[in-house]
Structure prediction request, 104 residues.
Amino acid sequence: MLVQERNSEKVNTNTHKTIFEELRESTLPPQEKTIDRLMDEGLILIGAGGETTAQTLAVLTFHLLNNPDKLEKLREELVKAMPDRNVLLPWQKLEQLPYLVSIS
Prediction:
């Protein structure tokens, strides 16, 4: 996101609007555009995103620990693809790891 300052006000120059910009500029009545409402909407978005990610990771962890053979196969693939743990692979390379993307 590009941010420029104009008269000590930060202005988003990105072509994509945030959810808050959309709400602010919407046709909602003014009583629906309060700071409290925007804070509530933000918390809902953060909570929803965090909860779904946490649940996915919890289920994934359970199944890998419950299937040690699959966990070992996944570890082998990751070690082969990333011999140096400190060098992260780009997302495009991770998507090409056959076992990582198709654990069954």
In short: Strands lie at 3-6, 9-12. The first strand starts at residue 3 and ends at 6. The chain has a mean pLDDT of 84. The CA atoms of residues 91 and 97 lie 10 Å apart.
